[in-house]
Amino acid sequence: MTGAPGGDGAPGVSTRAATAIVVADMIGVGVFTSLGFQVAGIPSGFALLLLWFVGGVVALCGALCYAELATLFPRSGGEYNLLTRLYGPAVGFMAGWISATVGFAAPVALAAMAFGQYAQSVLPGAPPLPLGLAAIWIVTAVHLRGGRHGSRFQVGFTALKLALIAAFIVAGFARGGAPAIGFAPEASDPARIFSAAFAVSLVFVMYAYAGWNAATYIVGELADPPRSLPRALLMGTGLVVVLSIALNAVFLYTTPLADLAGQIDVALISGRHVFGEAGGRLVGALICAGLIPTISAMTWIGPRVAVAMGEDTPLLRPLARRARSGAPVPALLLQGAVASLLLLTQSFEAVLDFIQFSLLLCSFLTVLGLIRLRLTRPDLPRPYRAWGYPLTPLIFLAVTLFMLVHLVAVRPVQSLAGLVLMLAGLLLYALARARGAAAPPR
Prior knowledge:
442 residues, mainly alpha, Amino acid/polyamine transporter I, disordered N terminus
């Protein structure tokens, strides 16, 4: 699939569209909600912004590592493809099983529910569940029309999202008056930075930054993977880091800490301080508009995992089918159906809890595989080499390991459930092999 066209005769997915996928996937609900849980334990503007900066550095380290691996093995499918190449088809199938079932469907359901809830600030009394379902299926319908339509939709809505966020940031800093908090370092900041509260808050930040690897799921459809993939990952991730720091600075600048502490809707609260009582409605509209490209990005890239698995496993061959437009229709419909089921049963939050450990572990194994490959196959021609190696992968591995240990300690049942899901994937792979249903990866 290397260099495969982007669908309906298009020459391939552009760097601009791939960057839009990264930006849209990263800026979801997390950046608008996390700060309320962080200010209670870290009452310092400098330390709070440093938290988002540190998380951004870790995300950029991960993006650099994935860029090297995905240009070395330029096939769509994300961790399914990379772990298959690094450790063998069994480990790749395990990762693909998670992504193809609930790994993307659960975040889509969460974003759709958030869309419905925030839409109530614009349309009072509107039921959030039907609005969320409508968002899922309207976006799915766009991508069913093929790559060209999906690309235009993604780029257009992501540009709107960025414009609205930039306008909110400018308005927040231009409002005048005394800032609610200062951002200069304080004598007590070193103690805060090395505190348990800072470490726990970093987990929330990294969850908010999830999506920095989004373009690797469509690398096989990029027009020029060695050039466009690293650019998309680095530009997209870097832009989101800057915007996230600026957004949180605005929240802190405009709103007293007491009003933010423990609150989940910090963006709405800040909006009221910036624009008055109408601010909640304006920010609700901003978030709704921003969630559409987030749903679209996951709707675009998630089914590519199922397609790659269908190409390699005869038992899953129907999922690899594409329409004449190039759209992976069965895979798109499957993800839309699972996301809708999770939304209707309100089970997406529980699913997100127990797949968090699995997804982190897959990322950890992928970056660890980069180091292993550098040691065992230094002769491989690498179209792109990760900057700062070996420091960049070591930074990513250290922080990810910390988060894995934290999840096991704080959420042992959910982490165990994630491991059980991974083992289920290995069992399915073993059954497919036993029946001769698994083919070598392409």
